[in-house]
Amino acid sequence: MESPPSLRELRNMSLTEYDNVFNLTWTYRQDSDVYSPVSTASIILQRFLDEGSGNQNEDVEKLIKMKTNVAIWIVSNCDGTKGARKRILLAQDMVNHGLEVDRMGRCFPENSAPPRGTSPVDLIRKYKFYFAFENSYHCLDYITEKLYRNAFRAGTVPVVWGAEKRDYLAVVPPHSCIFVDDFKSTAELVKYLKYLDKNVTAYREYFKWRTMKPQDMPNYGRQVRVCQLCRILHGINVDNIFNPRYNESYLSIPLFEHPSRPRVVSYLREWLYGPVSKECLATY
């Protein structure tokens, strides 16, 4: 569940010892045999609907009124990977261009810590923007709790940096994030965030997805984790229709459909590290 740089560079895991060991892959990647995302947008929305008052437009207005601060970033991995170092510089550049950002976590011990007992969600909810910056850049499908559990659950607009935009768009609600990669410069990004800070009508547009029906969300109905594994083991493999990189190699799934020739992941290292971009992992 960690990014390729965290495994290969930080932990020195070549994974060659696992060739021909496993039958299936189970990761955050959408092309895994068993897809295990940190969360899914439809689940987030359903939780929001269940906890809400019944009128989602009213709930959106309540969320917006809670926001008394501009932007927040909570981070503890300061330099473990190249991406971690790059995101520190990115955030500092945004501050240098005049964005008001409260930076917290082990990387900023000099800054005030949140009051003891304050949950991250309760803290983040008071801000208009949350920096959902990953510890790696353009690593295939690598999107973590920074987006789902922190920003979406807190009802704060995430500013995202990490995976490629197409990977985000495959799993997040429409117009729910601000993508750093959309802007030609940090100055241009900061200018846009300042504009949203002063224009409540434009800012509110990033909350429209919260009034959507769950069935209209990306990946609605897709079985994941243990439920998907259960289907595979019982010969029900309909979930591959969601796989954006489906290919004929999946004809060997379900396992029990071909008992004379069990499926084997021949080169786990190649499967995990091979498809990622040079921006993610220069060499492995």
Summarize the structure.
The chain is α/β, with parallel strands linked by helices. The protein has helices at 4-10, 41-51, 56-65, 82-96, 120-124, 146-154, 165-169, 186-198, 200-204, 225-233, 268-273, and strands at residues 26-27, 34-35, 69-74, 101-104, 127-133, 157-161, 178-179.
Please render the helix and strand layout as text.
Blueprint: H1 4-10, E1 26-27, E2 34-35, H2 41-51, H3 56-65, E3 69-74, H4 82-96, E4 101-104, H5 120-124, E5 127-133, H6 146-154, E6 157-161, H7 165-169, E7 178-179, H8 186-198, H9 200-204, H10 225-233, H11 268-273
Parallel strand pairs: 1-2, 3-4, 3-5, 5-6, 6-7
What does this molecule look like?
The protein is α/β, with parallel strands linked by helices and 284 residues long. It folds into 2 domains: 4-37 and 220-273, no CATH class; 41-216, 3-Layer(aba) Sandwich (Rossmann fold). The chain is built from 11 helices and 7 strands. The protein has helices at 4-10, 41-51, 56-65, 82-96, 120-124, 146-154, 165-169, 186-198, 200-204, 225-233, 268-273; strands spanning 26-27, 34-35, 69-74, 101-104, 127-133, 157-161, 178-179. Strands 4-3-5-6-7 form a 5-stranded parallel β-sheet. It has a two-stranded parallel sheet with strand order 1-2. The radius of gyration is 20 Å and the shape is globular. The chain starts with a helix and ends in an 11-residue tail after the last helix. Its EC number is 2.4.1.-. Keywords: Glycoprotein, Glycosyltransferase, Golgi apparatus, Membrane, Signal-anchor, Transferase, Transmembrane, Transmembrane helix. It holds the Pfam family Glyco_tran_10_N. This is Fucosyltransferase. Residues 65-236 form the Fucosyltransferase C-terminal domain.
